[in-house]
Amino acid sequence: MDRKLHEYCGLVGIYGHPEAANLAYLGLYALQHRGQESAGIVSQHKGTLQVEKGMGRVADVFSEERLQRLPGKLAIGHVRYSTAGDSDVKEIHPLVVRYSEGEMAVAHNGNLVNAEQIRDQLVEDGSIFQSTTDSEVIVHLISRSRENTFVDRIIDSLNKIKGAYSLLFLKDKKLIAVRDPYGFRPLSLGVIGESTYVVVSETCVLDLIEARFIREIEPGEMLIISESDLISQKPFIPKPKRFCVFEYIYFARPDSILNGKNVHNVRKEFGRQLARETKIEADLVIAVPASGTSAALGYAEESKLPFDLGLIRNRYVGRTFIEPKQSIRHFGVKVKLNAIQDVLRDKRVVVIDDSIVRATTSRKIVKMIRDIGAKEIHMRIASPPVMWPCFYGIDTPTRKELVASTHSLEEIRHYVTSDTLGYLSIPGMNKAVGSDGDDICHACFTGDYPVDFPTEKVTQLRLFDQFR
């Protein structure tokens, strides 16, 4: 099983550029880390929506020929890793539908906690669903709304749903961006020149396409971009901000800016704080690449230890590969990572990773480092223990699969086989982010869920606690 958590997806919207689809394509390249399962782009030309999408990474899905079939000055794009819904062509975003008021396209980042309840009611009332993605629930609610304008239909529909969403809509020569009132998932606005607006999940896209950052779209805000104007509304009941802290820990690219903070610098501060809390005598610090690198640099600086490259990542490994029939010990990890013997032999090594989910990969990494002759191995994790599943747009294992929810620190250390193991504390994490913890979502560490979810999920969690 994969050792990492996965984000739902990444969004890019382009308004007012003659090569809108090409810019969206470049934007999806910059957001590829947010989803490698599928990619899609929808453009609008002469009032008609054109769509190209497919399974696989951006480079696999889009050719020059396919991009030429996406004319127009408006486009929205999406990369996806499924958390809700199946892995299938029908699930690929953006979704394009025709209903009584014409055509619309929608792309969604996040997860709706009451989607199943609404879907069941809609099906009972006669609605027919083409996919299992919870985003289609939004489409059905919009098509059934009694409001007069498309904007009012969106507002009416989103008032019925609960959960995390950053959304892009394309309809009637308008690009509409919406962020949920809690602000779980990131969304930013930029501009190219004076009139081409860009809406993206991360600011690294703006750097690639040479767009100027304007600002982050605020929680609960709706932006309506048209030929005549850019209108901002806040039509939803305000909620306390709960930005997903895992964006800083793992999901976002290090060169992106979130809430006015560079992700790389926040991760370095995670490492510094981790060193203050778990410092140990050692010879060098190494990172589990690439997500542990920034924190490892911070740890090394704070602890006054040298940083070195002890693990090398094979950057060309895809999501699947053919395993040889003759068993190779730890094959799944060794094909992705290799330890440098001359750097690690006879050394006391601090190994920095961003998180531990099931601990199976951490165990293999420690064994690989020990096999080449490291004297001591000290695992340090630049986040608190992941103990609770996420219902807001992260692909999280069930609680019983999260090693920290079922095992003590010493039990995890013993399983991983490291000499010592230390996690960043929750107060330390908050301090590194520059927060008191009240404006970020840390439910995966604390079980404190900002948005209530359906009764059956509560029951599952309580049953697990009862019988663990």
Q: Low-confidence parts, pLDDT < 50 over ≥5 residues?
A: none
What is the CA-CA span between the terminal residues?
22 Å
**What is the CATH topology descriptor of the largest domain?**
Glutamine Phosphoribosylpyrophosphate, subunit 1, domain 1
CATH superfamily of the largest domain: Aminohydrolase, N-terminal nucleophile (Ntn) domain
Mass-distribution shape: globular
* Biggest sheet statistics: 7 strands, antiparallel
Whole-number mean pLDDT:
90
Q: What class do helices, strands and sheet pairing give? A: alpha+beta
Strand content: 25-35%
Number of separate helices: 18
CATH architecture of the largest domain: 4-Layer Sandwich
The CATH top-level class label of the largest domain: Alpha Beta
Description:
The chain has 468 residues and is of the alpha+beta class. The protein folds into two domains: 8-239, 4-Layer Sandwich (Glutamine Phosphoribosylpyrophosphate, subunit 1, domain 1); 266-315 and 329-435 and 447-467, Rossmann fold (3-Layer(aba) Sandwich). Helices cover 31% and strands 26% of the residues. A seven-stranded antiparallel beta sheet has the order 4-3-5-2-11-10-12. The protein has a six-stranded antiparallel beta sheet with strand order 6-7-8-9-13-14, with helices on one face. A hairpin with a 3-residue loop joins strand 10 and strand 11 (196-200). The longest helix has 16 residues, at 263-278. The radius of gyration is 23 Å and the shape is globular. The mean pLDDT is 90.
